[in-house]
TrEMBL record:
InterPro entries: Glutathione_synthase, Glutathione_synthase_a-hlx, Glutathione_synthase_C_euk, GSH-S_sub-bd_sf. This is Glutathione synthetase. Substrate binds at R106, E125, Q158, R382. Belongs to the eukaryotic GSH synthase family. One of its GO terms (molecular function) is ATP binding. Its EC number is 6.3.2.3. It catalyses: gamma-L-glutamyl-L-cysteine + glycine + ATP = glutathione + ADP + phosphate + H(+). It comes from Sphaeramia orbicularis. The gene is LOC115422580.
Length: 406
């Protein structure tokens, strides 16, 4: 063969491998092929209660006596929570240097299927730290609209809701920046660079539109370990369990019975594992019927909960020890399964039986005693195969989705 052929072949081969290199660096966000049906009434309920959850988180973060009492048993045995509490106490001791408070959070729910076929909204947790995907969930509605149009489902495509949490979260940041009073102030994002998840960039883009500078700093596992603000302790599972006790919500909403009713309606059964008769009863209940419950440690971010026979293994080891107070027990929520295709890089395309989780984003800004901003700013739907008990998008288990209201 001629040298010209070899030169051409080498050129084509080089170009081919260059294409492969580029292809490996560019991928898509994990998502469902089709949107998932969600009852409209339950969806609107989740949106309506979010501003009350914003207020609740803020008020808890200011009540050091409540946090000290609620977390007393937990900080004795859980080093992670204890360290956070010591930071909290140190901040209070030194005095808060700023009167401006920004809160960005996400309340997560599943739809518990009743015997009559209807669904009720039940909260899984409220994330005051791991409240991500506000950026990417702002982009997915257009994707599903396009898919439905291609599939000939034009009418359904028109029912995909607009959703832009990135703009709402940026609005909260911008408001706090404005109140800070210095045009030289810069927003710093602590990020974990994941090639599939550049969520923060959409929020940054919204800030750039407002002429607010931001910079990015990379920290491995930053959302799990390096973030801290005064609301972090308010999102612990122990606080979640204490809030479900009779009369506790009324402490934070003394003249707002409707707010109490709306929040309490979202609570699943939550049970203490503190030492004493009540905690002993919880242990016995969990050991007798472990499949009814979820054992939850004091963490955000997904992938930490304990299910089924593992509940028995853990509780048998700690049932007579104060170590059990590092957990709470919650009723297991049973959403109706749906069928969908989960699109993920390097994963086979197949129909899966799926479960979905609805998140609602909230943003608030307080200056002194005045709540300057308190809004529900968007939603997030994540879907995973029913074969997985726990784990989110960042963990490689769930994918992004959109609600199709019915």
């Amino acid at each position: 063969m001629s040298s010209g052929f070899w030169m051409m072949n080498r050129y084509v081969t080089s170009a081919f491998f260059s294409f492969l290199l580029v292809f490996q660096l560019v991928t898509y966000t994990p998502l469902t092929l089709f949107p998932t049906s969600v009852p409209k009434a339950v969806f609107l309920q989740a949106l309506a209660v979010q501003t009350h959850y914003n207020t609740l988180v803020d008020r808890i973060s200011q009540d050091s006596d409540f946090l000290k009492e609620a977390l007393a048993s937990t900080i004795e045995v859980d080093d992670f929570t204890a360290r956070l509490f010591r930071i909290y106490q140190q901040i209070l001791k030194e005095g808060r240097s700023q009167s401006i408070v920004l809160g960005l959070n996400r309340s997560d729910y599943m739809l518990d299927q009743r015997d009559d076929g209807t669904s009720s909204l039940k909260q899984i947790e409220i994330n005051t730290i791991a409240a991500c995907f506000g950026g990417l969930s702002s982009r997915t509605p257009d994707v599903h609209r396009h898919v439905l149009k291609v599939a000939g489902r034009l009418e359904e495509s028109q029912h995909i809701l607009d959703n832009n949490p990135a703009a709402g979260l940026a609005q909260g940041i911008a408001k706090a920046w404005e109140l800070y009073g210095s045009e030289r102030a810069v927003i710093v994002f602590l990020v974990e660079e994941n090639p599939e998840i550049f969520d923060h960039r959409y929020v940054e883009k919204e800030l750039w539109k407002r002429n607010i500078r931001s910079i990015r700093r990379r920290f491995d596992d930053c959302f799990m370990f390096l973030h801290f603000n005064l609301t972090h302790l308010a999102g612990t599972k122990k606080v979640q369990q204490v809030l479900a006790r009779p009369g506790v919500l009324e402490k934070f909403f003394p003249d707002q019975p409707q707010a109490v009713e709306l929040i309490r309606a979202t609570f699943a059964g939550l049970y203490t594992l503190d030492m004493g008769p009540e905690g002993d009863k919880t242990v016995a209940m969990a050991l007798a019927e472990p499949d009814r419950f979820v054992l939850k440690p004091q963490r955000e971010g997904g992938g930490n909960n304990i299910y089924g026979s593992e509940i028995c293994q853990v509780l048998e080891a700690v049932k007579d020890s104060t170590e059990r107070t590092a957990y709470i027990l919650m009723d297991k929520i049973h959403p109706a399964p749906v069928h969908n295709y989960l699109l993920r890089r390097d994963a086979p395309l197949k129909m899966s039986t799926c479960l979905s989780e609805l998140g609602v984003f909230g943003a608030y800004v307080r200056r002194g005693e005045d709540m300057v901003m308190n809004e529900c700013v968007g939603h997030l739907l994540r879907t995973k195969s029913s074969e997985h008990s726990d784990g989110g998008v960042a963990a490689g288990v769930a994918v992004l989705d959109n609600p199709l209201l019915i």
